[in-house]
Design goal:
This is DUF4399 domain-containing protein. The protein is mainly β. The chain has one helix and eleven strands; from the N terminus they run αβββββββββββ.
């Protein structure tokens, strides 16, 4: 706690930009990371409309943005989050994405993952998160795809 207090005190000595879009991460403050112009993410596989069996492997793609693990604050980078059966209208893009069965974090910089999912039809969408798991501004997200698991 002392280290965070010292960091907070030392930051107050510098002129900082307005924090209208800031998010509190413990005692740390962060602004939303600007999205690189033209950056996009997409699902390489499975294909939209595919019927697959378990385990299923997802391959993630990105253009115009580098991949870096969570916690690494490098220019024009982020890491993937896979949203499963999540309506984009439900997502608060100004906050750190939750980590649960519907919001899978790939904070190690992974570009593929193998998952077991219940049988049925599911929707998937990628969202790029910055070093704090907060979507970029504007959010970099894939088109949703629908896949049936047998």
């Amino acid at each position: 706690m002392l280290k965070a207090t010292i960091l907070t005190a030392s930051l107050s000595a510098f002129a900082l930009p307005a924090f209208a879009d800031n998010h509190d991460h413990g005692d740390q403050m962060a602004m939303r990371t600007p999205a690189p112009e033209g950056a996009e993410v997409y699902l390489i596989s499975p294909a939209d409309g595919a019927t697959v069996s378990n385990p299923m492997t997802f391959r993630f793609g990105a253009r115009g943005i580098g991949i870096a693990p969570a916690g690494i604050d490098a220019s024009d980078t982020g890491h993937h989050h896979l949203l499963i059966n999540v309506d984009p209208e439900e997502v608060d893009f100004s906050q750190s994405l939750p980590s649960d069965d519907r919001h899978r974090h790939f904070g190690g910089g992974q570009t593929e993952a193998t998952l077991e999912l219940p049988a049925g039809t599911h929707t998937f969408m990628l969202v790029m998160g910055d070093h704090f798991h907060i979507p970029h501004d504007p959010p970099i997200m894939s088109q949703p795809i629908t896949v049936t698991v047998e």
